[in-house]
């Protein structure tokens, strides 16, 4: 299941360029035909798979989590999938024009996926957001515990051990 549609892709990138990238014979695929174009759908599916593979690592997200995203988190997921799809469509032709190369877009998408995978960024899912918050309960001893002797050598000092020299 693709997390972005051809309509999402054309909302983020120029439909003319996508039409050029989806064509094999040099004739631009019309914007109206992009939602049914097999090459566009394949690129969206492959990009969605790449996102799933990256986010399933460490059992951080489940596919159901990604499918249930809403609001801005859903739009961010669509942006990631669209970026990767656009790059995949571009790569189909093997063009070497460095000025038009989407390497920067692809690199940015991979870095964003990596931050999601590591937990530096999280989607807006209640359990994941709460997991990233600092726990205010500390494991350090309180002032009373520090003043009260707790080691056996401290408790027995003066009874069984010589008194501590100050």
Short description:
With 166 residues, the protein is an all-alpha fold.
Structural commentary:
With 166 residues, this protein is an all-alpha fold. It has one domain. Helix content is 54%, strand content 0%. The chain has nine helices and no strands. Helix 3 (38-56) packs parallel to helix 6 and helix 5 (71-91) crosses helix 6. The longest helix has 21 residues, at 71-91. The chain is rod-shaped, with a radius of gyration of 27 Å.
For the largest beta-sheet, the strand count, sense and barrel status come to:
none
Mean pLDDT: 78
Order of helices and strands: HHHHHHHHH
Helix content: 40-55%
- Strand proportion, as a percent range, falls in under 5%
Total beta strands:
0
The CA-CA distance between the termini, in Å, is 73 Å
Number of domains: 1
- Structural classification: mainly alpha
Global morphology? rod-shaped
- Oligomeric status: single chain
Cα radius of gyration in angstroms = 27 Å
Low-confidence spans: none
Q: Number of DSSP helices?
A: 9
Note the main attributes of this structure:
166 residues, mainly alpha, rod-shaped
How is this fold's topology laid out?
Layout: H1 6-12, H2 15-21, H3 38-56, H4 63-67, H5 71-91, H6 103-118, H7 126-131, H8 143-147, H9 152-155
Helix pairs in contact: 3-5, 3-6, 5-6
């Amino acid at each position: 299941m693709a997390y972005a549609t051809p309509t999402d892709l054309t909302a983020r990138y120029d439909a003319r360029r996508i039409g050029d990238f989806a064509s094999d014979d040099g004739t631009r695929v019309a914007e109206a035909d992009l939602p049914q174009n097999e090459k566009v759908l394949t690129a969206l599916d492959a990009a969605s798979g790449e996102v799933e593979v990256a986010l399933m690592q460490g059992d951080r997200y489940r596919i159901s989590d990604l499918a249930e995203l809403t609001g801005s988190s859903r739009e961010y997921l669509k942006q990631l999938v669209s970026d990767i799809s656009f790059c995949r469509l571009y790569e189909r032709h093997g063009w070497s024009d460095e000025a038009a190369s989407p390497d920067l877009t692809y690199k940015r998408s991979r870095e964003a996926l990596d931050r999601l995978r590591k937990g530096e960024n999280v989607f807006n899912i209640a359990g994941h957001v709460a997991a990233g918050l600092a726990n205010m309960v500390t494991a350090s001893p309180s002032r009373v515990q520090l003043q009260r002797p707790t080691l056996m050598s401290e408790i027995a000092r003066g009874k069984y051990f010589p008194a501590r020299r100050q």
